[in-house]
Specification:
The chain has 14 helices and 7 strands. By secondary structure, the chain is an alpha/beta fold. It has a domain of 160 residues. A 5-stranded parallel sheet has the order 2-3-1-4-7, with helices on both faces. Strands 5-6 form a two-stranded antiparallel ribbon. β5 and β6 form a beta hairpin.
Length: 357
């Protein structure tokens, strides 16, 4: 009899998800010995990097005229190929589970694109249908973070991905409501809408909603908190180092100018990684944040939805999030960089990859 519980960790994005996925990659074998199965069949590249089960998303977005960018990155150029991809993913997942010999206690899936990409009920149902044959029940875990903090993190990601403009908060003024610089719309930040979708598809009783706040998480750490909630002892397991996803103000400005001069697609990947590693290690002279009034206006866009989430999942709290207005200044951080500093930082950032004449 299959009593497997499928634990679907949906992130959300910008809540330590990559760190958790690196932990899964580092400890999949040890977790398996404790009855926690972490499949490889849903990982795009299980030989390298974190165990992000991205194929759950790419195999579930079907009702479209053409593949999205994530599907294209896997070489899927038309929707017939996406359909075939779904069948292949399902077959490989079934084969991997069959090779276990007996059903695991937990099947652990982690993919933040369930939040950011599977925003139609039909897409979510396809994801559920892909996993349902292998489990008896679902537990859907979501960590929530204040929207203004999410926005700042999105800004850093955009710069790392090649943005040439330093935009700390999204601009939803376009007719379609989409910010092309940061690659998000308001729905990306709508926690209430996300949880409503998940509840409709997986059932409200399946949801396990947490706050991404060090004061709220066990040992102030999302990995420790996540596995404690599951009742899985990870004492002694290998733990990834903390990732610094933010950038010093000077580093952020430097990178926007590098992106404008040489877009990531035209730069040698090893050189790009070397530059990013150098910038990530730079000591910060101050937080790169929007002005307090702008951050509060942005946060207010989601007040109604946040109140719905609070009343349903955190009724003991006065507010869903504690507003940390003291983090913000009256004016946005002013960032400038001289030509001399640009040259110095460039030379230092590529010192390990330049070849002497």
């Amino acid at each position: 009899m299959n009593n497997t519980v499928c634990v679907l960790h949906v992130g959300t994005e910008k809540t330590g998800t990559t760190s958790l996925q690196r932990f899964l990659a580092m400890n999949a074998g040890r977790l398996g010995a404790r009855g926690v199965f972490v499949p490889r069949a849903l990982v795009a590249d299980a030989q390298h990097g974190p165990y992000n089960h991205v194929k759950l998303a790419t195999a579930s977005r079907l009702g479209r005229a053409c593949p999205d960018d994530m599907q294209q990155a896997l070489g899927l150029t038309d929707m017939a190929m996406v359909e075939a991809h779904r069948q292949s993913v399902a077959a490989h997942l079934a084969a991997e589970i069959g090779a276990l010999g007996r059903p695991p206690e937990l099947m652990l899936i982690s993919n933040e694109h369930v939040q950011s990409r599977l925003r139609q009920d039909d897409d979510l149902r396809r994801a559920k249908d892909l996993l349902a044959p292998h489990c008896a029940a679902f537990r859907v875990v979501a960590y929530l973070r204040p929207q203004a903090e999410m926005a700042t993190s999105v800004a850093f990601t955009a710069i790392r991905d090649g943005a040439t403009e330093l935009r700390l908060l999204p601009d939803f003024s376009a007719p379609n409501g989409f910010d092309p610089v940061l690659g998000v719309d308001a729905g990306y930040f709508d926690h209430a809408a996300l949880l409503e979708r998940l509840a409709r598809v997986f059932g409200a009783e399946a949801l396990d909603v947490r706050l991404y706040d060090r004061a709220e998480m066990r040992a102030g750490d999302v990995i420790q908190d996540f596995f404690h909630r599951l009742g899985v002892d990870i004492a002694g397991f290998a733990v990834p180092g903390r990732e610094n996803t933010s950038l010093a103000p000077e580093a952020a400005m430097f990178l926007t100018r590098v992106n404008a001069a040489v877009p990531p697609a035209r730069m040698d990947p090893a050189t790009r990684e070397h530059i990013l590693a150098y910038l990530s290690a730079m000591p910060s002279t101050g937080a790169l944040l929007p002005a307090r009034a702008a951050a509060e206006r942005f946060a207010a866009l989601f007040d109604a939805g946040n109140e719905t989430v609070r009343s349903r999942y955190f009724p003991g709290r006065e507010r869903l999030f504690d507003i940390r207005s003291e983090r913000y200044s009256d004016k946005a951080a002013a960032v400038g960089i001289s030509e001399a500093d640009m040259i110095r930082m460039f030379v230092e950032s590529v010192a390990g990859v330049l070849r002497p004449c």
